[in-house]
Give the backbone structure.
Amino acid sequence: MTVILAEDDLDIQLVARLALKRAGFTVKVVGNGQEAIDAVKAQPPDVILLDWMMPELDGPETCRRLKADPTTSSIPVIFLTAKSQEAEIQRGLSLGAAGYVTKPFDALTLGEHVRDIVSKLNQ
């Protein structure tokens, strides 16, 4: 399973990338929403992990654009964020996100959590 990880914090990029690779994912890391959109269009992944707060193009706007584009709308988007208030979760879901993983996350279970969210979409 391939994943695009859009995260601007280098430490979180490293931990998440290693956790996802350890879980068997192929990972492409980008630093902002525009890079995520470009990467998705260049080589569509199986799932996209988006940070909420990023430079240039934040997670919610990135999700909105991906879901509005027929060529990318079916790719699951999961927010990987410290924004865990109910209002933010509902906003993300209303934009078309498949789920949330809150920071700090457990590196040992990140891959399993992502797989669980994606598998629920396929039921």
In short: Residues 2-121 form a domain with the Rossmann fold fold (CATH 3.40.50.2300). Residues 10-22 form the longest helix (13 residues). The chain has a mean pLDDT of 94.
